[in-house]
Amino acid sequence: MNRRFDPRTLAFLGMMTALVFASNYARIIMPIAIGGRTSFTLANIVCVLSGLLLGPIGGLASGLGSALYDLTNPLYAAECWITFLTKGVMGLVAGLLVRRQAREGELSYARCLVGAVCGCLAYYVLYFAKSFFYDGLLVEGLQPGVALAALPLKIPASVFNASVAIIAAPPLALALQAALKRSGLTLRRA
After folding, report:
1. Structural domain contains residue 169
2. 184 burial level (CB within 10 Å; 0-12, 13-18, 19+)
3. Are 183 and 134 in contact (CB under 8 A)?
């Protein structure tokens, strides 16, 4: 029987959700002059990793783990639903790009790298849109020009976070897949 959410897949999904949640605590929050705050975080590595290991359903772990973190932090609680969507897209896109290889149980570094890059790009497009519309216009009440001028202040942290995820997630995915394969813990993916 080939069900999408068999017990093993649910266990891996829960584990990756917990890892995404915990990795969000490895964060340095920095206030910026206009438009709120930005942060350096290691959570993006695990968000991309969940997509690379689990395929498209890894987006559920990325989104849910990040949204749960937001609910534990008063700075982010009000926007947990946005985080669920944006971080979920990061894992979803990474997972979609490795779907065929993941199904066969043979990830390649090149495909993981493409998945990581595209997952990060998709996330940051949504993150900057959220920063402009939600943070800038709605929450801060900034004029559109000022809200747009605040976006470049978030670029250094965003580039750092994306670079770290793109560099770290593919080799981690390959190493973890090999270890899981050796131990007989392979996943059935949709």
Report:
1. yes
2. exposed
3. no
Interval 137-153 mean pLDDT: 86
Length of the chain (residues): 190
The pair of three-digit structure tokens given for residue 108, joined into one six-digit string: 């390649």
Task: Give tens-digit pLDDT for 58-90.
Answer: 999 999 999 999 999 898 899 999 999 999 999
pLDDT band for position 1 (cuts 50, 70, 90): very low
- Please give the residue range of the domain that contains residue 106: 7-182
- The answer to whether 41 and 69 have CB atoms below 8 angstroms apart is no
* Listed range (57-61, 101-105, 134-138, 158-162) with the worst mean pLDDT: 101-105
Over residues 4-23, the mean pLDDT reads 89
Residue 1 located in a structural domain: no
Element (H, E) at 96: helix 80-97
Buried b (16+ CB within 10 A) or exposed e, 95-131: bbbbbebbeeeebeeebbbebbbbbbebbbebbeebb
Cβ proximity of 65 and 21 under 8 Å: yes
CATH number for the domain that contains residue 26? 1.10.1760.20
Is 106 domain-assigned? yes
Q: How many domains does the chain have?
A: 1
In a domain, 64, yes or no: yes
